[in-house]
Structure formats: structure tokens, C-alpha cells
Design brief:
Layout lengths: L1 H14 L3 H12 L2 H17 L5 H14 L3 H17 L3 H17 L3 H14 L36 E2 L4 E3 L6 E3 L2
Antiparallel strand pairs: 1-2, 2-3
Helix pairs in contact: 2-3, 3-4, 4-5, 5-6, 5-7, 6-7
This protein binds zinc ion.
Zinc ion binds next to loops.
């Protein structure tokens, strides 16, 4: 009995996503950044309390929603918290890739000071690029991933995803396996 309960639980956490997470991604897509931000903030808070592996990405998405909602002062602490959690986990390749993207996005919006703060956080906490561990995963020129996660609706960024095996990436937001097309 115990074992089957455990398996059921595992199945439900890997193959389905919480309705709140789905809604947050939907609101993001519809441009309702304020509502999306509030939901991502709640999800990030809950995930962090549980020490969940998705907490960094939920913070980063909360930051992105606040940035798109023209609230850079609220966005910045979320970006920092997300990156700090990745740093604490020693996930330096992720810190580097995600950090670079956030810096670019901030610069595109003329948020130079915020961009410098994030660049400094990333630069001060990651090894030199040459020393970053090589990630497992396929040659990205040979695989195509869906644009969105089927389970939670979150965006899939091929350059940033982590790979479970040579054909399967992992959704950053809900942990569902994403099969290459
Ligand atoms: Zn997902």
C-alpha cells in the first residue's frame, strides 16, 4: 500500500502542474503581468518554504512579470533571490545562462543600473566560463523542443533547459519531462 501511494504521488507531481501555476503562465501570455506577478510570488514563497527545486525559477518568473509590469524596484529582489538560490545549489551553468538573459532583458528596457547589479551578482558568484561544468544533453542543432510545457504552459527556453537524458528536457517550472519533437 505504501509503495503504491508513493508512486501515485510521484506520478502526480511529475506529470501534472498546479492550477495556480498554469494560470500564472496564462496571465503572463495574456499580458496581465500584475496578476501573474502576484501568483508567481505566492508560488515562489511556498516553494521556497518547502525548499522545492522550482523555487528559483518561480522567483525569476515573478521578477520577469514585475519587470514587464514596469516595476523594476520590485523585480530586482526576485531576480536576485532566484539567482541566489541557484548559486546556493551550485548550479553555476544555470546561474550564468539565466543571468545573462536577465541582464539582456533589463538592458533592452533601459534598466542599466539593474542590469549592472545582476551582472555583478552573476560575475561575482560563477567560475570563469571556461571552468563551467559541461552539461549533459544533446547537440542543440539536432533537436527541437516544444515552445511550451504541456503540463504547466510555461515557456521552454532550449538554451537554458536542463536535460534528463538525450531526448528529454525538464520543465523549469513544474519539473515535467519535455520530449524533444
Ligand atoms: Zn511545466
Amino acid at each position: 500500500m505504501r509503495r503504491s501511494f508513493g508512486m501515485l504521488f510521484q506520478r502526480s507531481t511529475t506529470l501534472t502542474a498546479s492550477p495556480a501555476l498554469r494560470r500564472a503562465h496564462e496571465m503572463m501570455n495574456m499580458g496581465d503581468y500584475a496578476q501573474a506577478a502576484m501568483t508567481f510570488e505566492q508560488l515562489a514563497h511556498t516553494a521556497e518554504m518547502r525548499d522545492g527545486p522550482r523555487a528559483p525559477y518561480l522567483h525569476l518568473q515573478a521578477g520577469r512579470a514585475r519587470m514587464l509590469n514596469s516595476q523594476p524596484a520590485v523585480a530586482l529582489p526576485h531576480f536576485k533571490r532566484g539567482l541566489e538560490l541557484l548559486i546556493a545549489d551550485g548550479r553555476y551553468t544555470q546561474v550564468y545562462k539565466v543571468g545573462q538573459r536577465i541582464v539582456q532583458e533589463l538592458k533592452l528596457r533601459g534598466l542599466e543600473r539593474e542590469a549592472r547589479e545582476i551582472a555583478a551578482l552573476v560575475g561575482g558568484n560563477t567560475p570563469a566560463t571556461a571552468d563551467l561544468p559541461t552539461e549533459r544533453g544533446p547537440d542543440m542543432a539536432t533537436v527541437v523542443l516544444p515552445t511550451h510545457c504541456e503540463a504547466c504552459g510555461g515557456p521552454i527556453r532550449p538554451s537554458e533547459v536542463e536535460w534528463l537524458d538525450m531526448h528529454t528536457a525538464e520543465c523549469s517550472y513544474c519539473g515535467s519531462p519535455i520530449r524533444a519533437l
